[in-house]
Design goal:
This protein has 12 helices and 4 strands; from the N terminus they run H-H-H-H-H-H-H-H-H-H-E-E-E-E-H-H. It is mostly helical and 321 residues long. It binds fe (ii) ion (FE2) (2 copies).
């Protein structure tokens, strides 16, 4: 934080009761002038997670795009990457309006302090993994952002997400179209399945701790999101599992008709071998504390991706500060 940056208490003049009254009257929060310190802290946190996730997907997808089978396929991947950078820009720009020092946040932050899901720390090494990421990770992003779009009480973000949602639909469709094409060939299908085996479970983790472990109070009450972690995980499986069934790819989850919900058919959460990109499912279920330790350590690509994003700024601002 620079010395000119105002504190949260100085920026957000409303009391918690005033915020609750405003929301109860059906009004949106349009800026810091309508926020309490707690609201400002909460909306900054969720916007940072969202913007970091969008931003890190750019180097992750760029690495995989070099495996594009043809130049026009590379072009499609580039247009997805451009979308992701624009999505990141929306989030960081709003954070700037909320009093955050944007250059410091994006370009001067330690790689380990970025808040995107661990899944992006694991390298995407083929065109198969890029299109699976579109079908799995972009689907996760879509589920989360649609929920924010519906439930958010922060007007500027809510409105911006109308455009983001449409673009995520294109990313999803890109993934699904390619998967349908690739499964027609037995060797391509085998490669897809091998990648799906680690990527599916990693995306299940994306939605975070199960509801019985996590208290959502403020996030739900202030309308930063509408659904709980487990509800979001269910919504994601409801989109992904039927599609994978349809194309004949196996996933460790199925719909339990009697319970009316999706059930995970493998140990979860489990231990992940990040170098081999494989789950140690034979060791059974591990604790969420162990998962959180891995998340906190960050994974193999964290430093590389963040350095790549920060390199140009460092070169042109070498003397800054
Ligand atoms: Fe995005
Ligand atoms: Fe996307």
């Amino acid at each position: 934080m620079t010395s000119t940056e105002l504190s949260i208490e100085e920026l957000a003049p409303r009391t918690e009761d005033e915020v609750r009254e405003r929301l109860a009257a059906g009004k949106l929060v349009e800026g810091v002038q309508h926020m309490s310190p707690e609201y400002l802290r909460g909306i900054r946190r969720i916007l940072t997670v969202s913007a970091d996730t969008e931003l890190i997907s750019a180097p992750a997808y760029l690495r995989a795009a070099q495996h594009a089978p043809a130049l026009n396929n590379y072009g499609s991947a580039m247009s997805i990457i451009q979308d992701e950078l624009a999505h990141a820009h929306i989030g960081y720009r709003l954070l700037g309006d909320l009093g955050v020092d944007m250059p410091a946040l994006i370009y001067e932050r330690e790689p380990k302090r970025f808040k995107y899901p661990y899944a992006f720390d694991v390298a995407l090494d083929s065109w198969h993994e890029l299109v699976l990421a579109n079908a799995l990770y972009d689907q996760a992003g879509f589920v989360l952002l649609s929920d924010v779009h519906t439930s958010s009480t922060f007007g500027p973000w809510k409105r911006a997400l109308a455009k983001v949602d449409k673009e995520e639909t294109f990313h999803l469709r890109h993934g699904r179209t390619w998967i349908k094409k690739l499964v027609a060939d037995p060797e391509e299908k085998r490669r897809l399945q091998a990648s799906l085996d680690w990527m599916f479970i990693l995306t299940l983790e994306w939605f975070g701790l199960p509801d019985e472990r996590k208290r959502h109070g403020i996030q739900l009450e202030y309308g930063f999101k509408g659904m709980t972690n487990d509800e979001l995980r269910q919504a994601w499986m409801a989109a992904v599992v039927p599609f994978m069934d349809e194309v004949g790819l196996a996933v460790p989850a199925h719909h339990d008709e009697a319970a009316g919900r999706y059930v995970i058919d493998c140990p979860f959460p489990a231990d992940f071998d990040e170098e081999r990109k494989a789950w140690r499912l034979d060791q059974g279920t591990i604790s969420w504390e162990q998962v959180m330790e891995r998340w906190k350590r960050r994974g193999p690509m964290n430093r590389d991706y963040v350095n790549r994003l920060q390199r140009g700024y460092r070169m042109t601002n070498g003397a800054r500060g």
